Each structure stands twice: as C-alpha cells, then as structure tokens.
Amino acid sequence: MTRFSARTETAPAPRAETEPALAGLWRVVVLNDPVNLMSYVVLVFRKVFGFDEPTARRHMLEVHEQGRSVVWSGLREKAEAYVFTLQQWHLTAILEPDETR
Question: Would you say residue 29 lies in a domain?
Fold first, then answer.
C-alpha cells in the first residue's frame, strides 16, 4: 500500500498582463469628419482644452488636412474623459496608446 503526501506543491500564479496596458501615456486623437464646420471644431478645442486661438486653429487644420490630430497625451483616465467629452460635442475622437516613449 502506498501513501500519498498531504503536502502539495503549488507554482506561483502568473502575473496578469493587463496592468502594463493601462499604465503609461495615452493619446486623444480627433479624426476628420464631413459634418462639423472648421469654426465649430476650433470652438470645441478652445472650450474643452483651453487652447488659445492659434493652437486650436493649428489642430483643426491638422485634422482637416491630415485626417487626424493628437490633441492631448497623458494618463488613461483623463484621456478617456477627454474622448468622452469630445464625443459629446459630436467630434470623432479616439483613444490610442502613446508608444513614442
């Protein structure tokens, strides 16, 4: 008759890889759309981000001419809030990881 040991060996649990995906910097990107007037986009940038007129116009022109503009970069929670706010103003905005650092 064989006896089994009551003691069992357990391997350490693998670490979740979700934390690095949330950490780091994220970008708020505004995409071009055929609906909003350029003056409206400038107004929204000034109200949401507090941009001065030349900065807001520069980002608006970048959206218009290149199809997109990175308007803000920082922590994910704040970036998500900006994307939500821009969408409430009916702009097409997305969130993407900032992999430049």
Answer: yes
Return phi, psi of residue 43, to 5°. -60, -45
Put simply, whether the predicted model's pTM sits higher than 0.85 gets the answer no
Give pLDDT tens digits for 3-51. 555 555 555 555 554 444 557 899 999 999 999 999 999 999 999 999 9
Q: How far is CA 53 from CA 39, 64, 89, in A?
A: 11, 16, 18
At 53, which CATH number?
3.30.1390.10
Q: How is residue 46 written in tokens?
A: 């000034």
67 close to 29: Cβ distance less than 8 angstroms: no
Q: What angle do CA 28, 20, 86 make, to 5 degrees?
A: 15
